[in-house]
């Protein structure tokens, strides 16, 4: 039984304000709704929080209409001086899902430090040592504490080649041998699938090679109900610090609650360095701040199946929300069952972002289109070596399929050197829209850039232009307890003038002061009838009537959802049709809401059966919309960037 005769205090980082938000809500939470709870936690004496990076960098401006740097500033102001605020970065991907060139990672590190970060926990989903060494340098040069991660998981199949204690210790040893500065080390299990014995042996092995002044941390998730047991094993092996959260952002896909861990350590000689009795006040403050949000039961409950489909808590939440939105939640189990195959075939990289999303999307594609018929771009690039070297050798047939479909040759060079320059195109886009080229603005656009994605759909540019999409997981309006606070947050308006290029958050807020409306103004209204919710997009004309006529409401401006989420996904990307009298409306192949990425035809064009007429985004992946029959395009109803729900026309073919 775990016991310390001399007593040992275990340090705690509270994750509620980053990983808790990501695991439960995909990070889609307004900063104003969590600042009061952070103040309560600081008043309770807590001095170490996770507050940024991961999805809490991207989610604010992808889905909340908020600038992530301003959100970080708000949290730093609430925390005050003398408090460690930590972020999570993804090696060659940084805070993005694609590989970044070194100048982008250097700018990222400078900005993260400028906006309040003291500690950067950096991991590589491949556990590629060269990646870990190269991406540590910008963190160190920026003046942050460099916490080296070894990424862990339990394999969903039998293998002794990787994901063993010896393998993890060797990864850390090789980084230490490189001479790069390592301030602390973390055993990071994003999926909560590593068994307690492996945690114990890994901790013992790492403590044997780490200098005395380098602390060893442990991170896991409670998705499989094993987190407390794994922490107990790690502490017995020598772990110095652990990550914990607090209800309602604890357990399930998140970290264990502080109170659970405090109770487990009773009479062992081990104690926590935070006061467990303060959790009730923090929980109350979080419940108050999150009163409008709808908690998805899937993200709150333990799921023992995760040991066979290693999926991070921070990714399960967003994927569940995306599947529900696309109307295919009933395929969830099918996707999970495909996981062991895609893990083994890919090369057993660790299931943590972006690798976990690549596993998920490839499993999703296998279910939707047939096994290996459509290789996800991220999964394929990982198999081919563009993110680094997978721990095990990928399946040669999958490598061949990825190379053919993506039109890329296998790669064994430096991923940083092969990454595209995202900074120059970002500066060009800002200049073309007469937007200030501050470091923050450049990075917002650059870090939202994805190969092949059109710049007008770039989330950073949309935010700065006042066109950010707001997609918060809120309760239906009638179910909210505070009607006064129920209005959705409006996206930031564009700057009225071209300001200086200084990056202070206060200045940048002033740059975006709301202009007076001189033309049509678009907003949304929600109508609920029984179990059906309809969201209408409404365009209002100014009273003067001097502007051009408003765009009529189209079917694509409406979103329908019922309690029967989870209509079966399509077997192929052929669109469905709706008879509209003198024409046939081609609609999305998904049962929920998707974003239109591209329209490939124009009015008057003749199309053949099976021809790709549009592309849409669902589950962060691009999907073709094919015409089910031949005909002439009578009307195009939507534009790139619009959202379209099931049964709503994208294109109408004339008869």
What is shown here, in short?
The protein is 34% helix and 17% strand. It has 23 helices and 21 strands.
Structure write-up:
With 655 residues, the chain is α/β, with parallel strands linked by helices. It has 2 domains: 14-291 and 305-406, Aldolase class I (TIM Barrel), CATH 3.20.20.70; 576-654, RNA polymerase II/Efflux pump adaptor protein, barrel-sandwich hybrid domain (OB fold (Dihydrolipoamide Acetyltransferase, E2P)), CATH 2.40.50. Strands 2-3-4-5-6-7-8-1-9 form a 9-stranded parallel beta sheet. Strands 13-14-21-19-16 form a 5-stranded antiparallel beta sheet, with no helix packed on it. β17 and β18 (621-626) form a beta hairpin. The protein is globular. Mean pLDDT is 84; it is low at 482-524 and 531-572.
Shape: globular
Strand order of the largest sheet: 2-3-4-5-6-7-8-1-9
CATH superfamily of the largest domain: Aldolase class I
Which percent range fits the helix content? 25-40%
How far from one another are the termini?
77 Å
**Number of structural domains:** 2
CATH class of the largest domain: Alpha Beta
Structural class: alpha/beta
Determine the strand fraction and express it as a percent band. 15-25%
Largest beta-sheet characterization: 9 strands, parallel
CATH fold assignment of the largest domain: TIM Barrel
Total number of β-strand segments? Answer: 21
Low-confidence stretches: 482-524, 531-572
Tally of helical runs:
23
The pLDDT mean sits at 84
- CATH architecture heading of the largest domain: Alpha-Beta Barrel
Task: Report Rg.
Answer: 25 Å
């Amino acid at each position: 039984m775990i016991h310390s005769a001399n007593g040992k205090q275990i340090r705690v980082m509270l994750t509620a304000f980053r990983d808790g938000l990501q695991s439960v809500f995909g990070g889609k939470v307004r900063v104003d709704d969590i600042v009061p709870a952070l103040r309560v936690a600081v008043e309770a004496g807590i001095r170490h929080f996770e507050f940024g990076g991961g999805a809490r960098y991207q989610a604010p401006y992808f889905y909340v209409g908020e600038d992530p740097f301003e959100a970080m500033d708000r949290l730093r102001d609430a925390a005050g001086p003398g408090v460690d605020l930590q972020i999570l970065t993804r090696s060659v991907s940084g805070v993005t899902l694609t590989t970044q060139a070194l100048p982008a990672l250097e700018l990222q590190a400078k900005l993260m430090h400028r906006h309040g970060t003291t500690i950067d926990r950096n991991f590589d989903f491949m556990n590629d040592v060269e990646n870990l060494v190269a991406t540590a340098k910008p963190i160190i040069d920026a003046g942050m504490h460099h916490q080296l991660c070894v990424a862990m998981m339990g394999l969903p199949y039998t293998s002794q080649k990787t994901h063993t204690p010896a393998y993890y210790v060797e990864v850390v040893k090789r980084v230490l041998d490189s001479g790069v500065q390592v301030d602390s080390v973390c055993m990071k299990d994003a999926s909560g699938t590593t068994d307690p014995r492996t945690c114990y042996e890994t901790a013992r092995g790492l403590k044997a090679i780490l200098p005395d002044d380098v602390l060893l941390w442990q991170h896991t998730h409670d998705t499989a109900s094993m987190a407390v047991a794994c922490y107990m094993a790690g502490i017995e092996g020598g772990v110095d610090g652990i990550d914990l959260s607090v209800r309602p952002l604890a357990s399930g896909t998140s970290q264990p609650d502080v109170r659970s861990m405090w109770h487990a350590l009773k009479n062992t000689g081990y104690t926590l360095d935070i006061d467990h009795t303060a959790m009730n006040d923090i929980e109350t403050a979080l419940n108050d701040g999150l009163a409008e949000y709808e908690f998805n039961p899937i993200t709150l409950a333990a799921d023992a199946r995760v040991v066979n489909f290693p999926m991070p808590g921070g990714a399960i939440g967003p994927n569940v929300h995306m599947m529900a939105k696309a109307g295919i939640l009933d395929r969830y189990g099918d996707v999970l069952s495909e996981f062991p195959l895609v893990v083994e075939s890919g090369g057993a990289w660790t299931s943590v972002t972006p690798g976990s999303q690549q596993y998920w999307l490839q499993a999703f594609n296998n279910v939707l289109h047939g096994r290996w018929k459509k290789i996800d771009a991220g999964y394929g690039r990982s198999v081919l070596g563009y993110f680094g070297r997978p721990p095990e050798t990928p399946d040669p047939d999958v490598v061949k399929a990825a190379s053919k479909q993506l039109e890329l040759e296998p790669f064994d060079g430096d991923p940083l050197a092969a990454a595209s320059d995202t900074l120059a195109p970002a500066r060009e886009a800002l200049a073309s829209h007469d937007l200030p080229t501050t470091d923050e603005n450049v990075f917002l656009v650059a870090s939202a850039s994805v190969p092949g994605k059109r710049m007008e759909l770039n989330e950073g540019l949309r935010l700065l232009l006042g066109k950010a999409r707001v997609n918060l997981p809120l309760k239906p309006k009638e179910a909210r307890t505070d009607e006064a606070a129920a209005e959705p947050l409006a996206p930031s308006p564009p700057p009225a003038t071209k300001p200086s290029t200084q990056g202070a958050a206060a200045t940048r807020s002033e740059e975006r002061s709301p202009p007076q409306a001189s033309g049509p103004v678009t907003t949304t209204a929600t109508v609920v009838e029984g179990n059906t919710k309809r969201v209408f997009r409404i365009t209002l004309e100014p009273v003067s009537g001097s502007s051009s006529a408003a765009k009529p409401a189209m079917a694509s401006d409406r979103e329908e959802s019922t309690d029967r989420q989870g209509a079966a996904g399509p077997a192929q990307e052929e669109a469905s049709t709706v008879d509209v009298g003198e024409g046939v409306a081609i609609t999305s192949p998904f049962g929920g809401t998707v974003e239109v990425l591209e329209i490939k035809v124009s009015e008057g064009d003749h199309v053949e059966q099976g021809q790709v007429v549009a592309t849409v985004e669902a589950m962060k992946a691009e999907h073709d919309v094919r015409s089910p029959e031949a005909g002439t395009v009578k009307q195009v109803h939507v534009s790139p960037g619009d959202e379209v729900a099931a049964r709503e026309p994208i294109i109408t073919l004339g008869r």
